[in-house]
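Running log. JK asked me to keep both predictions on one page so they can be read side by side. First protein, sequence followed by its tokens:
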Amino acid sequence: MNPHLLGLMTHKIGSPGRFSRHADAALAAGFSGVILFTPAGVHVERGTVTGYVRQGRSPWRKQSAAHPPVAIDLGYYTTPLTNQQVFRVKNRTRIQFTGHGLGNKWTIQNHLLASPLLASHLLPTKPMDSVDDAIAYAREHEAIMIKPINGKGGIGILKLCCTGSAYRLHENRKPALSGGPGTIRAALRRARRKGGYLLQRWIDIRNPEGRVFDVRVLMQKDGTGHWETSGMAIREGSANSITSNLKSGGRAHEVAAYLNRLFPSDKADALMEKLCELSVYIPPYLEERYGRRLADLGLDFAIDRSGCLWLLEVNIKPGKAVIRQVYGEEAARRCFLMPFREARRLALSATATGDERSALPL
């Protein structure tokens, strides 16, 4: 193994030049270069990786190299075959990854429910085993969110409302569908062809202007193995959006000032305190619960109109756009570099002990 070379694993390379920013971050963290590869490029038995290497500022060059001692997983894996390949790489090689997967949204939900501190901040949620499940859940709660069990970025999320025998199904950037159970069942059957879904009770998290908002908290290892809050921001959805994601035209705002506009100052202060408490608690709790190393988490919280705080999701590969909008370019650059500093710490520790797998717990 080359302790000075950082691995970058992704689902698709295309042009390696797209990852030059990542290679520059590795240099800034103290690595001599990177090797960029997909799970299919890892040869377990031979102990080699075929991919693209960039040493220093030299051009990218396709070649094979020894397994790097440490790698950052940048990929999004959507097929069973690729997921099997990822499992093989992470469990049958001596490559240490800065972070590991947590499973689908239902798996994560069940791990979170095991914590008494978190359970009271989780919404009623269940898998959608059939389209009739969604109809029944909407009748029970009047309005529900229907989320892809492996979704990201708010893509494919639906909202289903029930008033008597009338239903309304809404998806961002599409006309709402109104009708009886038969109409809704047909639409949900079409959606299910794309994969599994979760059903979750809807809560009113709209501001006085009617825009949906939530709070994204970015938690990162600081390069010494300790967690820190790199930033938090309000994500406010565009008009008529059912989600708050920035990719759907939303905007980011500073949290404390935003909450003070919505709630009395003592309530806003209490919400800030609870946000900080839960955010600091969740990363080490999940590491211990899963027995896996993590390094970069995006925590999504919602605050309903009555001021109740809810934990919506935990993301293992969070974007940094909210940090840039609220804190500026320098803060966003620092957040981008953090995983590379943590990777360097792991590499140096592995070199010092001569044992890549046992160098650090988790």
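And the second, directly underneath as requested:
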Amino acid sequence: MIKSMTGFASGKGAFGPHSWNWELRSVNGKGLDLRLRLPDWLTGLEAALRGELSKQVSRGNVTLSLRLSREEAASDIQLNTSAMEAALDALAQAEALAGARGIQLAPSKASDLLALKGMMETGSDADDPAPLVEHLKSEFGGLLSAFLEMRSAEGAALAGILGGQLDQIAKLTDQAAKLAERRREEMEQSLRDNLARVLDNAQGADPERVAQELALIAVKADITEEIDRLVAHVTAARTLLKQYGPVGRKLDFLMQEFNREANTLCSKSQNAELTAVGLELKAVIDQMREQVQNVE
């Protein structure tokens, strides 16, 4: 069964002090465009998830977002000893320079030093991201399955719509074939009348040459090949709809062929009823082509 390029899935989870929200969505596209918005410090996560998506998705503009937060505990806050030592050295140097000039500096308080930027750090800076990355990798499978399930459900709905449109095309093609057969008899009689009229009024005209020219006109107006190709295209499209895997590009190409035959049928019709059927055929083909743009 075909799949749609439209899909969405979301989820949430937690591991240790970390919690997060996933969001995976896709829309139609000519090729596969993966856009992953993940925290940079989760080393190796993007490559792994990109690989999984590439295996399961062939076409579409796919966006994966991960919003991660960390619950900080009081015990996670630590003194940056290196920064404190540097600050104390700077303070001692400042007091020495001031004393050399006879300047008395106000006593420094510990709170003043602790308020300096970078003096206090949280335990997250020292966390090993590897366990979290592995947990996120294992959890991503469930999100991806839900996403693919929605694309399959959308694909089933698409297949129903496209199948109905193919039924319309087949019905209109059959109408066109019947109208063309009726028109053939009318055209043959018209050509015979025209041939007799030309021969009666043309002095020295070669009857065989005139007959050949009129026969050529009849051949150019014949739409048998267009009807046969439309029937074949309907069969090919129905076969593609039953296949499992990405068939969107093939269906898109087939729609171009459908449109070409419908255009030729209209240009050859020379009959009001047949032209009306041809125009209705073009309208259904155009509607179907819009739907095909969503098939993976």
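Observation for JK regarding the second prediction: The beta strands are 7-15, 18-27, 32-37, 60-70, 77-79, 120-122.
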